[in-house]
Amino acid sequence: MSTPLATALGLAARTVPVLPLRAGKLPFGNCRTCAHNACGGRPVMKTAGPCVCPGVCHGWAAATTDPGTLASPAWVRAWGQAQAVAYHPGGAGLTVVDLDNADAITWARQHLPATRTVPTTRGEHWIYRGAMQSANAVRPGVDIKSTMSYARWLGPGTGTMTALPDAVRALVVKEPAPAVRPVVGVFTGTGGGVCRHRTPTYLDRGIAMAEQQITEATTEVHATVYRTFLAVLSAHGRCGCLTDAHVGRLFAAAQAKGESARHCTDAWTNALTRLGL
Question: Helices 200-215 and 244-256, interaxial angle, to 10°?
């Protein structure tokens, strides 16, 4: 039985960027130096950029084809704890259509061209040649994993890989987002009292950090969006600082990660309720 490191080295030799996954199919978290992206981040395959961390940081962006990195002491320690091997489809010029159940598979057989398929625990991965934007929940039981995402390596699969079709690209094309409805007393500027957030730089920096947190989410996007909305409202929700434009930026960041307008609204409402606003 091949070890995770041996599997990773074999994939890297075929120019497939790989990374280890810990329990729960999650990447290894940032080290203390890189926590909260303090290092400035790391691009795909670490070919450039400010971060020189030798560890397994930054989720999908840590994926690499460099055998020296994969077999370095820091990575070997991670491989020893790894539960699975993941790869960055976009870095390999691929797109994975993740079909999570039997209904999704039936839909794909009716609407998408045949390509290489890989069985998963609950469904199938359909792998196409060509990269595109990743998105979650593009339809019931269907996620798109390509750029800025990772997929578990579950074997080479069967069938001939075909070119990425327009039918898959169309799945992430969204209709214009509806206007964000103001919530009176929360982000319309109607709050009372002296507001310590009136300094535009302070508020804008907070919104920018929230946008970044949502954008960099590689797993549990739904939960990340809710937690981020909750954090923003905890800091800025009681004094009327937030405007429609601020909330619109947060909703746009969430929708760019595949969230629907309805989910954004529900998450925002739930956060308001949690805080008693």
Answer: 20
